[in-house]
Known about the structure:
By secondary structure, this protein is mainly alpha-helical.
Amino acid sequence: xxxxxxxxxxxxxxxxxxxxxxxxxxxxxxxxxxxxxxxxxxxxxxxxxxxxxxxxxxxxxxxxxxxxxxxxxxxxxxxxxxxxxxxxxxxxxxxxxxxxxxxxxxxxxxxxxxxxxxxxxxxxxxxxxxxxxxxxxxxxxxxxxx
Length: 146
């Protein structure tokens, strides 16, 4: 006895009737109802079998596609919902912001120079006082008698 084993256990869907699963059977029944009502209404108004058949098949095709289409474990309506959300609800508009590195370096260099100048101006009086104190201390030591 040969038993087929699915390659991916998660992709397995139990079959209910024939080779159809529950979702496919429900969608086929819905599409049959759509075909029957659309065909009857259009045929009574136009008396054209060709026109009523084409329109009824076009009307039921989205339902049949929902039953058949399965991509990456997601059905058609889920894929369409995600596409709608990504396109209209959550649009991804990324602004392209370009910075000139040379301007940034020059700006940082100017800020650095300005900061150093202010530091030098603040420390200049302190250096003058400390140098005067140092010279005064040396003078006291030089003339200090033992």
